[in-house]
């Protein structure tokens, strides 16, 4: 596998070396560099890549290449080796969001430089254990606090067209270790589409600050009540 990767990189470099206005990374006199160095660039890619949440995803090594133009912008982004599960689309998007590099130079002038690199993704290991508030040291928090969360709901919730309808809706969801909400469901409804409307509004939530156990972010089960038309 390593030999095949090396050969693919070599062939890619050779193809670009035939393009007069683009230098290969090996031949350019002053190499382009990401601000802070390649360790920061690798960190940027790793922090923004979301491993596909599919038990069939076994991870693997992608191979991407791009051109760092004379302004430091990444162009001509390609995925040379894909591992499926829409990881190619993710890679292209993340690379397109990179901040500008310090461009390479030839004879003292900025030039376009071709660069190829692997992206290694781990296998999906499942969602991990689920905790409740009693078994963790720090519960999940909505940015700005629960008052801000309920304000989000009240500002976006469209109540059913029934003035006599009132009662309490109970919704549950999981605050994932990355702060996103999953497994949203209604466990007590009052009908007339109220439960479905609450689920719609929950989809508008920004990421929470995840709960913690032993200093690590964990998945936490959460339940909220919503009163419609005053106290039940």
From TrEMBL:
<dbReference type="GO" id="GO:0098797">
    <property type="term" value="C:plasma membrane protein complex"/>
</dbReference>
<dbReference type="GO" id="GO:0055085">
    <property type="term" value="P:transmembrane transport"/>
</dbReference>
<dbReference type="InterPro" id="IPR051045">
    <property type="entry name" value="TonB-dependent_transducer"/>
</dbReference>
<feature type="domain" description="TonB C-terminal">
    <location>
        <begin position="59"/>
        <end position="119"/>
    </location>
</feature>
<dbReference type="Pfam" id="PF03544">
    <property type="entry name" value="TonB_C"/>
</dbReference>
<feature type="domain" description="TonB C-terminal">
    <location>
        <begin position="163"/>
        <end position="227"/>
    </location>
</feature>
<protein>
    <submittedName>
        <fullName>TonB protein C-terminal</fullName>
    </submittedName>
</protein>
<dbReference type="GO" id="GO:0031992">
    <property type="term" value="F:energy transducer activity"/>
</dbReference>
<dbReference type="InterPro" id="IPR037682">
    <property type="entry name" value="TonB_C"/>
</dbReference>
């Amino acid at each position: 596998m390593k030999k095949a990767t090396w050969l693919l990189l070599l062939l890619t470099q050779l193809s670009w070396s035939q393009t007069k206005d683009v230098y290969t990374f090996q031949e350019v006199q002053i190499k382009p560099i990401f601000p802070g160095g390649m360790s920061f660039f690798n960190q940027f890619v790793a922090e923004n890549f979301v491993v596909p949440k599919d038990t069939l995803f076994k991870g693997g090594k992608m191979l991407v290449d791009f051109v760092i133009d004379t302004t430091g912008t990444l162009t001509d982004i390609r995925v040379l080796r894909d591992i499926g599960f829409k990881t190619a689309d993710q890679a292209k998007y993340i690379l397109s969001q990179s901040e500008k590099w310090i461009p390479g130079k030839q004879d003292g002038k900025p030039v376009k430089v071709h660069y190829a690199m692997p992206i290694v993704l781990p296998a999906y290991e499942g969602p991990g254990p689920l905790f409740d508030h009693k078994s963790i040291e720090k519960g999940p928090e909505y940015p700005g606090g629960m008052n801000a969360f309920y304000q989000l709901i009240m500002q976006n919730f469209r109540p059913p067209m029934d003035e006599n309808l009132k009662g309490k809706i109970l919704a549950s969801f999981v605050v994932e270790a990355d702060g996103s909400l999953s497994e949203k469901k209604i466990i007590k409804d009052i009908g007339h589409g109220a439960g479905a409307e609450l689920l719609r509004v929950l989809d508008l939530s920004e990421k929470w600050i995840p709960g913690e156990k032993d200093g690590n972010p964990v998945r936490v089960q959460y339940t909220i009540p919503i009163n419609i038309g005053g106290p039940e």
